[in-house]
Amino acid sequence: MSNTAFVSIGDLRRGRQALSPVAQILETAASGGCSTSGGEGKASCGSSGGPDDMPAEIWEKVKNHPCYSEEAHHHYARMHVAVAPACNIQCNYCNRKYDCSNESRPGVVSQKLTPDQAVKKVVAVASEIPQMTVLGIAGPGDALANPKKTFDTFRMLQEQAPDIKLCLSTNGLALPQMVDEICKYNIDHVTITINMVDPEVGAKIYPWIFWEHRRVTGIEAATILHKQQMLGLEMLTARGVLTKINSVLIPGINDEHLYEVNREVKKRGAFLHNIMPLISEAEHGTVFGLTGQRGPSAQELKAVQDACMGGANLMRHCRQCRADAVGLLGEDRSDEFTLDKIDAMEVVYDLDKRRAYQEKVEVERAAQHEAKLAALDAVQDDDGVDADMKVLVAVATEGHGKVNQHFGHATEFQIFEVSKAEALFVGHRRVDLYCQGGYGEDEQLPSIVGAINDCHAVLVSKIGACPRDELKAAGIEPVDAYAHEFIEKAALSWFADYRERIARGEISHEPRGDARIRQGAFTAAA
Q1: Rounded to an integer, what distance in angstroms lies between the CA atom of residue 267 and that of residue 273?
Q2: 370-525, what's its fold?
Q3: pLDDT tens-place string over residues 178-205
C-alpha cells in the first residue's frame, strides 16, 4: 500500500452518519458488491444491480452506463473515439493495427481522429442514437499517454454534449499524475487494466515500459507499473471516481493469480472487476499469438470468474470492444459514422429529444424488471426437485433484454445461470453465423454446439428443423416458445417447466459439459 492519503474501511464504519462519495464506493467494495438477497436473488453491480442495491449517487452514475450495469447494456449504447494512438508500455497480447474494420478487439481502429473530429463524431452519433449515453477514450494506445488529445476532447464534449458520461481507459502507468485532470473534467468512470499484483507474473506479460524518459524491462518494469496502478486506483477511490479493473486471463501465466488481483483491487475500492479472455490468434501478430500462447475456453473463464465471487464485483458482459466502437455492446455501427458520412449529415443535438427517448427506455426497463419478479414468484413453489439445482441457458438476442433473435442469425449467445433464486447473466459465447445467404451452413453447427455444450437449453425467437434436431441430439433443448419475452422471464419460465417435467418423471436432469469445470473447481479459491 502506498503512503497516499486513503480512507480505510474501518474509518468508514466508525463514522457513517453522512457517507461521502468515496465512503459509498468503499462500502460497496467492502460489502462484496452492490447486491441484494430475497425475492430477486443476489445480483452484482456489473450484472443486474438496481437502485435498491447501492447509494443513490452511485446509482445515478451507473444506471444508464452499459459497462457498469449488465441490465443497462441491453438498452443503452456507448462509443469510443480513437484520439490516443501512443502507448507507454508494451503488452505481449497487444498489436495496434489500423484499417482492420473486420476485427473486434481492443487497440484496433479504422480511423484515428483529432479531438475536433472526435467531438464532431460524438455529437453526430448522439443525435442519431439517443440511447448513446457514454463516451470513452480507450486508445488505440493509452488515453493518459496522450493527455493533451484526451483532455482536449473531454473539455469540448463537456461544452457541446453535457449529458453524456465521460470515461477513459488506461494501463495505469501515468495515472497518479493525471488524477487531478481527470476530476477537473468530471470523468466519473475510469478503467485500469491490471493483470498482476506480483511483478514476477507481470514480467511475463509486459516486455517493457517507458518510464522517466527511458525504456525499462523485466521485473523492474513490472514493479514500477504495479506501484503506479495501485497508487492510481487508491487516488481515484479517494476522489469518488468509479473504477473498473480489466484483467486479461492468460492460461498458465496469471489464471490462478487473478484471484489475488481481485482481492487486492477490492481492498483499494475498485467498483468492478472485468476478467476477460486472452485473444491470441496468430494472425493478429501479437507476441502471445506468434508464440502459441492459447486463450482460455469459455468454461475456464467462467471457472475463474466464479472463484472470484465474493471479492470485487464482477463484470461478465464485456465484449472487448474496438477503440472506435459505436452502438450497443455486442454490435458495432462505426461504419455508419465515418467522417465522410458525418460531413453529409444534418446534425441537430436535441437534448430534450434524447431525454424523452431515454425515458421510454426506462419504461421498458421497468417492465423487464417486473416481468422478472413475476417469473421468480412462479418458480418458488417447492416441487420436490433439488432446490439447489442450477443450469446454464443460452439466449439469442438482438437487444432490449428480449429473446428476439433467430438461431441462424446469432453471432453470439448470452449465457444465464438459472436457479429458483435468480436468472444470473454469466457471460457470452461468440459463434460462427449459421445462416448465410438465406441457407443454413450445416458445417457451422458443430462449432456452435461446442460453444454452448454446457447449456441445457437455448432460447431463440425461431429455429429451423435441422439445427433443432442437431441440438436435441447433443442434449441441448431448443426453445422458441418464449419468443420476444424478456430474457429473465423466459429463462425462469423455461426453468419452472423443466423442473415440473423432472418432477413428473418425463425427463431426468443430467449435468452438462465438463463436470470438474461446471462445479467451478479452481485451486486459487481454496
Answers
A1: 12
A2: Nucleotidyltransferase; domain 5 (3.30.420)
A3: 999 999 998 989 999 999 999 999 999 9
